[in-house]
Each structure stands twice: as structure tokens, then as C-alpha cells.
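Input (structure):
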């Protein structure tokens, strides 16, 4: 048995930002237009008028202040209300592959490694640009990695499930190292015309290099233990996936083809599931909350994270103990906890123990207990 370790992480952040103010302005213009177009039906009581969104609500309900996206022009155009992502030819790199390669190069650089040191690529994400060939194999080819690659999808928990898959292969000796990449084009499956959820997501890609600990050449995080759990639920669901609305073939624009959630139920059902999962994982590994130096949680909602952080530590977390990035990135699905980890872990000291945890659709929850070696 070999010990796996996280030796590098990288984040690709899109250049374009949408603030809550910009988002609400576009949504309200769309709502006004829809209400004007449907004035007769509204007056007759056949349909309800669309209500305005508000910046105050978004911040209060979620803690989100802005989000990065690949294309803001389409999202903010009341005539479009979704990103305009050019359909690439089969000979060009896909969008997900391009984002993931950027993040992967940063992870390799941090670890002081090159493509030659990597044996496998796992592309773990909520929405895949196509069914096959696997996006991971395209990333493998673009990076010049030998070995193998495959895609997997466990929605918002994809990163931690991917880390477990990689860590298990490293432990068993079938590979020496793997890149787990999480390119999340959430803007392409968000329903930007739905007031209840239009503010939730952003785009990003993260990469995590996992190697045998004996191969680490710098500061790293030993993976002490991983744990995954799932329970079926329809409360977060997407029936058709990637940017269905941009199809020129006249396929009906059904609401269920984009992200749908019953946010209140998610709150009520996922919070106990995650708190119990983490508590049991820590107990089984003899990790006391007093000894947990940092918690990097899935980034969906600030209230949710405040609740979980308090449950896990048994007290209100001190600033920095449970870092949030959702105010800047919004919910980036599987990438969220890895952004938080990547941007808030360098200062930990030799022997410090931390926990990465993601959760979401499925339902799914995955946790990774790590120990810093500085
Ligand atoms: N602007 C203004 N008001 C809005 C609004 C908007 N954009 N969207 C909803 N509202 C209103 C609703 O109409 C409702 O009004 P009412 O009380 O008069 O009926 C009110 O705000 C409360 O709505 P509710 O859905 O109960 O809000 P909430 O506090 O639960 O927050 C979420 C909504 C989605 C942010 C929250 O439930 C959440 O984050 N859930 C879990 C999300 C999650 O983890 N998802 C996983 C995805 S990976």
C-alpha cells in the first residue's frame, strides 16, 4: 500500500465577471419584457406576472456577490439569457478541455512536475460537454500524458469522489499519480430566466494532482482518508444537460432541460446528511474537532456553510478556519471546495489536519481528510 498525497492544485478563473447588480438589471429587463408581451393573459388571470429579482435577496439568501462566466454578453442580453458559446469543430479543443488544461498546468507547476509524471486523468464534473470520446482523454492528449483517462459525474461531489478514485488507485499501486480535473461550465446549464435560481452559479475549472507521497518534492497534503456516500433524490436535477437551448434544431425548450432545484428541501435534507457524514468520518479516523485546523466546504450557500462549520467544529468557526469563496465565484459545483482549498491552504503548518467536503445533487457527499507536510 502506498500513501497518496495532494501535491498541487490549480484554478482556471474566466476573465468575465457578472456582479449581482448587472445580473438583476438584465433579469428585471427580461421580466418586464415578458410581462409586456403577456399583458393580456396576465390581465385575464391566466398567467402570473414575473416578479423582479433583487440584489439584497441574492446576497442575503446565498452570500453571493458576483460570479465568473465564460460569456456574459448572452447571459445579460434579455433576448438571449444564456451564454453564447460557439460550437467548436471536432478538430478544435473543447471548452471543458481548454479550461481543465489551464488548471492542470497550474497544479503541475505547483507540484514541480510535468505531464511525464502523470499516469491518469479523471475529468470529474457536473455537466459534460459530450458523451464521448471522454473529455478526460482529450485533456490527456492536450497535456501529452501517457496512461489512461476517464470521465465521471457525481454532480457537486465530483471532485471528492474523483480524489477518492485516484487515491485508491495510488494506494493499490495500479498508478503512481493522477490529475483530477473539474471543469464546470455551470452557466450553460443554469436557467437564467428563473428568479429562484438565476443567481446561483458561475464557471471555473480546478485541478488536483495526487501522487504517491514518496514522489512529493515539496510541501503537500497527505491523504489520510476519503469517504463517499449517496442517497437518491430528485430535489436537484437536470434532464438534458449541456447548453440545450443553443441547439438550432428546434428542440423544445423545456424547463427541466436546465438546472432545477427545490432549494428549501435541499437545505433541510442535505445539512443533516453532511453533518453526520463528516462527524462519522472524523470519529472513525480519531480526528477531534479541536485538532481540525481547516474545513474547505462545498460552496453553494453561506448559511449552509456556516451551519456545517459550526456543527463540525462544535463552535462558530474563527475567520479563516472555514474559508468561503462563494462571494466571488458563486456556486461552481464540484470545483467550489477545491478553489477554497487551493486558495487557503499554503499557510498550514507541518502536521496540521484539514477536511475537504463537497455535497450536492444525487444526493451525494464526499469528504477527504488531509495532513499538511510543509
Ligand atoms: N429576488 C427576490 N426575491 C426572491 C428571489 C429573487 N431572485 N428568489 C426568490 N425570492 C423570494 C421568493 O419569492 C420567496 O418569497 P415568499 O417568501 O414571499 O414566497 C422568498 O424569496 C424566499 O424564497 P426561498 O426559496 O425560501 O429562499 P431561500 O432563503 O431558501 O434561498 C436558495 C433560496 C436557493 C438560495 C436556498 O434555498 C439554497 O441555497 N438552497 C440550497 C442550495 C443548494 O445547495 N443547492 C445545491 C446546488 S448544487
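Output (sequence):
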Amino acid at each position: 500500500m502506498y500513501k497518496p498525497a495532494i501535491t498541487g492544485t490549480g484554478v482556471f478563473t474566466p476573465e468575465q465577471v457578472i456582479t449581482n447588480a448587472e445580473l438583476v438589471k438584465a433579469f428585471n429587463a427580461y421580466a418586464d419584457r415578458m410581462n409586456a408581451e403577456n399583458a393580456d393573459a396576465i390581465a385575464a388571470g391566466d398567467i402570473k406576472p414575473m416578479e423582479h429579482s433583487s440584489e439584497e435577496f441574492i446576497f442575503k439568501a446565498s452570500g453571493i456577490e458576483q460570479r465568473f462566466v465564460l460569456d456574459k454578453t448572452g447571459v445579460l442580453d434579455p433576448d438571449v439569457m444564456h451564454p453564447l458559446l460557439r460550437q467548436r469543430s471536432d478538430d478544435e479543443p473543447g471548452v471543458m478541455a481548454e479550461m481543465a488544461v489551464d488548471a492542470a498546468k497550474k497544479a503541475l507547476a505547483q507540484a514541480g512536475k510535468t505531464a511525464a509524471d502523470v499516469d491518469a486523468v479523471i475529468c470529474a464534473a457536473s455537466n459534460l460537454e459530450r458523451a464521448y470520446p471522454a473529455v478526460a482523454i482529450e485533456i490527456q492528449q492536450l497535456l501529452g500524458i501517457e496512461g489512461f483517462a476517464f470521465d465521471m459525474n457525481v454532480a457537486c461531489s465530483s471532485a471528492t469522489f474523483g480524489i477518492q478514485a485516484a487515491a485508491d488507485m495510488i494506494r493499490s499501486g495500479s498508478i503512481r499519480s493522477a490529475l483530477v480535473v473539474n471543469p464546470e461550465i455551470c452557466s450553460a446549464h443554469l436557467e437564467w430566466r428563473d428568479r429562484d435560481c438565476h443567481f446561483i452559479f458561475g464557471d471555473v475549472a480546478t485541478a488536483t494532482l495526487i501522487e504517491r507521497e514518496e514522489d512529493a518534492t515539496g510541501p503537500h497534503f497527505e491523504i489520510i482518508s476519503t469517504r463517499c456516500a449517496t442517497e437518491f433524490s430528485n430535489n436537484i436535477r437536470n434532464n438534458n444537460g449541456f447548453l440545450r437551448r443553443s441547439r438550432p434544431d428546434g428542440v423544445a425548450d423545456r424547463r427541466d432541460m436546465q438546472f432545477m432545484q427545490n432549494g428549501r428541501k435541499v437545505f433541510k435534507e442535505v445539512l443533516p446528511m453532511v453533518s453526520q457524514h463528516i462527524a462519522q468520518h472524523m470519529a472513525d479516523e480519531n480526528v477531534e474537532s479541536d485538532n481540525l485546523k481547516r474545513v474547505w466546504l462545498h460552496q453553494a450557500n453561506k448559511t449552509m456553510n456556516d451551519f456545517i462549520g459550526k456543527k463540525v467544529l462544535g463552535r462558530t468557526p474563527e475567520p479563516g478556519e472555514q474559508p468561503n469563496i462563494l462571494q466571488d465565484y458563486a456556486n461552481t459545483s464540484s470545483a467550489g471546495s477545491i478553489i477554497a482549498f487551493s486558495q487557503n491552504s499554503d499557510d498550514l503548518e507541518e502536521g496540521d489536519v484539514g477536511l475537504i467536503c463537497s455535497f450536492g445533487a444525487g444526493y451525494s457527499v464526499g469528504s477527504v481528510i488531509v495532513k499538511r507536510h510543509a
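Notes: The chain has a mean pLDDT of 94. Residues 7 and 364 are 25 Å apart (CA to CA).
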